[in-house]
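Form 7-S
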Amino acid sequence: MMKGLVKEAGFSLTEVGELWGHGKSWVSRRLKLLTGLDPQLKRELSEGQLKPRLAQELARLPPVNRPI
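Output:
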């Protein structure tokens, strides 16, 4: 939903953050999870097996260092 608001509706990250009660950086980090996270980790995140904060840290790792 956030990605659609930014890409399709032209909302700024700040505006999207205000809708969720968070700041621009929070939105930016969540959007990075959509683009920079391994598909398996995305699935675990969506199923609630992985917390967003840990997923953010894992997204920062180079692909060779990510868990299999």
